[in-house]
Amino acid sequence: MTATQDRQSTDTPTPGTTGEPRTINLIQAVTEALAEELERDRRVVLFGEDVGARGGVFMATAGLQARFGKERVFDTPLSEASIVGAAVGMAARGLRPVAEIQFADYMGPGFDQIISQAAKLRYRSGGQFTCPLVIRTPSGGGVKGGHHHSQSPESYYTHTPGLKVVMPSTPYDAKGLLKAAIRGEDPVIYFEPKRLYRAAKGEVPAHDYTVRIGEAAIRREGSDLTLIGYGGVMPDVERAAEALGAEGVSAEVIDLRSLVPWDQEAVVGSVQKTGRAVLVSEAPRTGNFMGEVAYVIQERAFDSLRAPVGQVAGFDTPYPYVQDKVYLPGPNRILAACVRALNY
Amino acid sequence: MIEVHTPDPIRYVNEDGQPVQALPGRFTPELLRELHREMLRAREFDRKLITLLRQGRTTFYAQSTGMEATQVGLARSIRPGHDWVWPYYRDHTLGLAMGVPMYELISQCLGTNSDPSRGRQMPHHFASAALKFVSISSSIASQVPPAAGSAMAQKYLGTDEITVCTFGDGATSEGDWHAGMNMAGVAQAPCLFVCENNQWAISTGVRQQTASETIHVKARAYGMPGYYVDGNDIVAVMEVMTHAAAHVRAGDGPALVECLTYRVGSHSNADADAEKHYRTRDEVSAWVGRDPIVRVERLLEHLGHPVSSEERADLIARTHREVDQDVLRAEATGQPDWKIMFEDVYADLPSHLRTQAAALRAEQDGGRA
Question: Which parts of the chain span the membrane according to its record (chain A) (predicted)?
């Protein structure tokens, strides 16, 4: 058993299910999770702009309306405030709404519904009303989408108590985290790294499983440096670790998977072991969630640090169209940060 | 016959208490006296809470004086505890009339241990799960899309509850209002939207909110009937509201009722000198003259069943005593412990909040971790 599998403590086979693991891509994992949850629980409903007959602009919901009916999988008016707000009302009434926002960039009109209603309903009512909803949305760059189809707005939501925020990078996690989000009792913002939809392939079990929100995955064990990332940057992070390995540097790779709550123990434990950390995300640098990770590393692992914590992020510009690939932290920029940490 | 999209508000009783059309049979003197008692109780609750505010025992209060017929009339037209209500922050009279215990309301205003919302919200933002009265949010109109969703859920679940969503005139300028109305219209969701048009959103008058002649006509744009009613005439409010609620309950889609009323007091204690800054004394006086409570008293007098001054004084005294007792009872429960600050953020306490709570515990205990 690898370290990654070891941390997926909720990966438990459902009695009676058999079959070999299958290799699928990330968006297929999303579709499978949705289909299985719709099948499992009649309280689950799925809606958003174009999710019905069209199956979503990325086809994440393809075939689900035909299979589960228009009552449970339906198109809404083009209004993020309506989509999120309706999900709040449905959740308060005992349903398990899974709302799709077509692009994370479009969440703006639904922002107040997310932060004023979804995030706070349980708290402000003293637990009298709850809001177990999931908002799924494609996020991040690398698809030539310009700044309204490529942004990484997760930090806005990690800053709001009451929300859980997750972003998978593998089909296994995409499926397991989405199922956990749907079955949980809290509002979850579920970011899907769109450039990995078809690029990320991997095995998923044939049986039912969930991945616990809040647990990181150790993708690779190492002893010289810890590389920490999440979402769309993970393939490049792993490429950088491979390149370091070819040079005799042993890099540990952690995929956070969940940003709220996040796995401080995995990160701090790793940095205490390696003495160096490089944080990688594609969101603009100022106010980036990784700033919190860096803070916790210096707070809890300061004595172990042999170099300043490195950060590779997007730039503080609107996401550019033409310089799409330059904007993203690729293996070269990640390697440069690693070299700085190793040579400090 | 209740008409839709009327140019003038529907009215049954004029300001002198004279019926302007035949009173429906259910408005017996007994019912009218009951309604009068409920409105007067809410009025006196307002008066006492303002006193509490002046005494520094609470920090915020938003009166509903002048709007009692709208809120009591609404409460009487739905099924409290059965139908779901997504209210706005000036709806304590609605809450009281639906059966929210005065003790709970006062506890919430005082933020005591007896507050069901556990001291999390500023005064006047209460919730009652027992009455399906969903927690009030301060951000204007943000309850409207969730109300549409609540009604959509009800349609999906197939029960005969309806959802009621209230808001002021100011809310109708917000994008959320249009989003929620549109969503409910498209989904044909069983939602009764109620605009308590009290004509002022703090210092912004309704003419600065909308270029539309009335608010109820906007319903047409969302594919639902819009009703316009004199919100100070409880008979008219109940007749129209009952009609609209029946439309919604029958599965014929949502409806909007605009109740034309007036906020006689200030927006809150934060703008106690409203007459000095943004509205005229004459305007306020004119609306004080249209007092919904006085109107029912005049109607009862006209019907030969006057409310005696002793009866009135007795009810006022009883309400005052009730408030006083509930305040003492609530205050005796004390303020919630700091620990509750960390509860109900999530279903379970995540580790980062456990860490933060432990740090605060150490600080609160004078450094003894």
Answer: none
